[in-house]
Amino acid sequence: MVQRIDVTAADGVRLAAWEFREPPAQPRQPAVLLLHGLMGRALHWAGTASWLGEHRRVVALDQRGHGQSEHPAAPGAAPGDPSRVPAQTRAPVPAPTLGREAFVADAEAVVEQLGLGPVVVIGHSMGALTGWQLAARRPDLVQALVICDMRASALGEASQQEWEEWFRRWPLPFPTQDAARRWFGEDDPRVERPDPGRGAFFAEVMHQAPDGWRPLFSRRQMLTARETWVYDAHWEELAKVRCPTLVVRGLDGELGRAEAQEMVRVLPAGQYAEIPDAGHYVHYAQPAALRAVLEPFLEAVAGLASR
Predict the structure, then answer these.
(1) Helices (H), the chain
(2) How many Cβ atoms are within 10 Å of 67's Cβ, its own excluded?
(3) CA 190, chain centre distance (Å)
(4) pLDDT tens-digit map of 36-68
(5) Other CB atoms within 10 A of residue 160 CB
(6) Cβ density class 138-147: b for 16+ within 10 Å, e for less
(7) DSSP structure string for 8-42
(8) Sheet harboring 58-62: ordered strands across?
(9) Could you tell me which of 131, 111, 118 has the C-alpha nearest to residue 37?
């Protein structure tokens, strides 16, 4: 079963949430909210949701500007192709509809409107940041948190410039979805060795346009949304997360071991897990290994909730 549930954000943006299986009649464990990363979509969590849903209600959200949720207009958006990236050194200042406050408010709306709280939030990359900001601001809504491969430190101006250049190198449109899979998994100059998980991740965010396969999102909007962790660190909010929190990193991911362990130290109830043979897209590269580290954490959380 795949069911779409429409949610309205506080500013009126229409959000698409998804359940990938019938929730159990009497859930034995707290509900789970799954939040994808930048450029991702709820569909990326389908495999994880299938086993998570055996004993609990599981909802995955297409975050604003992604998947089938509404794509708010960014300031100064280029006409024509919505994924066009103009040559510039820095994306415009984030509009309220694309900033951190909006992403966190969306997650809050989903939890409250669907009656999920207190919920376990499992977030990948940008979704993990949204999860810990929600947990810091609304501890009554979040029972536990999983942070998958997301840094707390600011990335810096050079990172944003590198992404702008990378976006301009995308050979759009792709003639087929498989061509997109091959480029992102093998031919992209950013790929040091073949990465089938990465290829699959990006293939699933492509849709068939009249001239070929293009991303579901606007690359310009992704740069705008990304500014909030390129130029800002989020250590203070991380320290305010009081619930049990598991920090997961892929051995070859974007979150380094030293920073991950410092995040665990800063968290009042932090734990650490590392997935070998995985990069940034942990849930695609090693789904079984991710399940192996999530299950005992979630069982412990369920035990605490039943006391």
Answers:
(1) 46-52, 100-113, 126-137, 157-169, 177-182, 196-203, 219-230, 235-239, 257-266, 282-285, 287-305
(2) 23
(3) 20
(4) 999 999 999 999 999 999 999 999 999 999 999
(5) 18
(6) beebbbbbbb
(7) E-TTS-EEEEEESSPPPSS-SS--EEEE--TT--G
(8) 3-8, 14-19, 58-62, 32-35, 119-124, 142-148, 245-250, 270-275
(9) 131
